[in-house]
Design a protein that fits this description.
The chain is mainly alpha-helical. The chain is 75% helix and 0% strand. Helix 1 runs antiparallel to helix 2.
């Protein structure tokens, strides 16, 4: 399925995409926090750096991209008068 721009989506697609992005953002943040905590714990427990500590930083980029997409969808929703 090709990605559509928000102004090319129907109202139903816009609402579904917004709901999905909110879920992805929440799950991404939760996973990043858990992995960061596990990475810090492993670093302290083993007394050496764990590569798991760097993974949440890379997930942050994905969360930021999804947040920007969500912002664009919310602007389009507002311009259409959808609540």
């Amino acid at each position: 399925m090709a990605n559509k721009k928000p102004n090319e989506m129907s109202d139903e697609e816009l609402l579904k995409t917004e709901k999905t992005l909110k879920l992805f953002i929440t799950m991404g943040i939760s996973a990043a926090v858990l992995m960061l905590a596990a990475g810090i714990w492993l670093t302290i427990a083993k007394q050496k750096f764990s590569a798991l500590t760097a993974v949440p930083m890379s997930m942050g980029v994905i969360v930021i991209v999804n947040a920007n997409s969500l912002k664009t969808i919310q602007k389009e929703k507002k311009s259409r008068g959808l609540l």
